[in-house]
TrEMBL record:
Gene3D superfamilies the record matches: alpha/beta hydrolase (3.40.50.1820), Tetratricopeptide repeat domain (1.25.40.10)
One Pfam match: Esterase
TPR repeat windows: 348-381
Family listed: Belongs to the esterase D family.
UniProt keyword annotations, A-Z: Coiled coil, Hydrolase, Signal, TPR repeat
Signal peptide: 1-18
Protein name: Esterase
Entry coiled-coil feature ranges: 379-406
GO molecular function, one term: hydrolase activity, acting on ester bonds
Source species: Formosa sediminum
The UniProt record lists the keyword Coiled coil: yes
């Protein structure tokens, strides 16, 4: 009987342990005076938000009920792959979707107006985002000034309308298969009329299209793409960035996930630094020391452009990796990894790669010192690669011991 009770307690304990929830975000509620209603928000914060003092760009996500989970997963994975910086996501749950996401239009077919019901509230919804939601988020979270909006279908219509009416409200737009069968009156005026000063245009606009074949939606999306391309090609002094990515293999619904994934990657593409890789490329920069200076300067400028700190750690690390493979530049790799450590003194990766460089050069004690510091930092972070860093220390200690035995 005691044995059965003991086993039962173990099973209960294991069951409780196995059912711990995995949390990807939080909910919050904001009351809107403009919309005269409460709005439910779904908020994703970067993994290290609570322990850092950094500020983060914000992506405002329409149709949050459908898109929040996959958008959070995309943002987390892309940051892990060092394609984008960490971001905050603010998902906006719908109440009256057709009302909020559509502008008033004199060209809307009466039958469509009747089918959609309440429409034409886009200006109020813009007012809610600009005057109520953004201040709420900025007062409660550590936000950078860089703002993204992601809208799908009618949300894509809202994106286009917002860009035409208030392009400065967002820095970047992810516009997913926009339902441009819904008429936007101002769009026919043309970009040169709407944006007479191209030097003030520095937004990033990413747009996709699924396998849409009915009505005039497809043609209007392609026409809008042409308007962007013509404006950018005509005005070489504009900093407006645009990419149209048709996805004919996707349905109107399934296009959402890859659009957010590739849209975020395109928005932050300028934060990626092209590796030098070869000796010729490194020397063309003026040598290793000058290459380090160029990397630091590049990311300083990128941080100023985006309005938040963009890390140069991966670029410096890659330069060190490339140098360690070039026989007559191996010693310079240590200097690069030291420069990386100076830039990122709390990074376990910076210590680990410096240790690796020392190990490659046969300076095993210095390698061990850096590996141990990296391990101690990793222990404080619950990093999933903890065992790898333990192994790193164990292996270098074996090498040191073997080296000592050989001398004896």
């Amino acid at each position: 009987m005691k044995y059965n009770l003991f086993i039962g307690l173990i099973l209960i304990s294991l069951s409780s342990y196995a059912q711990n929830p995995i949390t990807i975000g939080y909910t919050s509620t904001i009351h809107s005076q403009i919309l005269n209603e409460d709005r439910l928000l779904e908020i994703y914060l970067p993994e290290n938000y609570e322990t850092s003092n950094k500020t983060y760009p914000v992506m405002y996500l329409l149709d949050s009920f459908l898109n929040f989970r996959h958008a959070a997963a995309s943002a987390e994975f892309l940051h892990f792959d060092q394609c984008i910086p960490e971001i905050i996501i603010v998902g906006i749950r719908n109440t009256h979707r057709n009302r909020d996401l559509t502008p008033e239009s004199s060209n809307l077919d009466p039958k469509e107006r009747e089918r959609l019901g309440s429409v034409g509230g886009a200006d109020n919804f813009i007012g809610f985002i600009e005057k109520e939601l953004m201040p709420f988020i900025e007062n409660n979270y550590r936000t950078a000034p860089y703002k993204i909006i992601s809208g799908h279908s009618l949300g894509g219509v809202f994106n286009v309308y917002s860009f035409l009416k208030h392009p400065e409200l967002f820095n970047a737009y992810i516009t997913i298969s926009p339902s441009l069968w819904y008429p936007i009156d101002d769009i026919s005026k043309g970009f040169d009329f709407i944006f007479p000063n191209p030097t003030k245009m520095n937004q990033t606009f990413y747009m996709t299209l699924a396998n849409e074949i009915s009505g005039n939606m497809r043609g209007n999306v392609f026409k809008l793409s042409g308007d962007f391309e013509n404006y950018i090609n005509t005005h070489k002094d504009t900093e407006l960035r645009f990419k149209f990515n048709p996805m004919p293999e996707e349905s109107h619904l399934s296009v959402g996930l890859p659009s957010v994934f590739f849209g975020l990657r395109f928005i932050f593409e300028p934060t990626q630094f092209e590796r030098f890789k070869t000796r010729a490329a490194i020397m063309a920069q003026g040598g290793p020391e000058k290459a380090v200076e160029n990397i630091i300067a590049y990311f300083k400028k990128a941080s100023e452009t985006y309005g938040f700190e963009i890390s140069n750690e991966s670029a410096l690390r890659d330069l060190g990796y490339d140098l360690i493979k070039i026989e007559d530049l191996k010693l310079s790799a240590v200097d690069v990894f030291k420069a990386n450590l100076e830039q990122h003194p709390d990074s376990y990766g910076a210590y680990s790669t410096l240790g690796m460089a020392y190990e490659k050069l046969g300076e095993l004690q210095k390698a061990k010192e850096n590996y141990k510091i990296a391990l101690n930092i990793v222990k404080e972070t619950n990093n999933f690669e903890l065992e790898n860093y333990k192994t790193q220390v164990d292996e270098i200690e074996k090498k040191i011991k073997a080296q000592a035995n050989n001398k004896n």
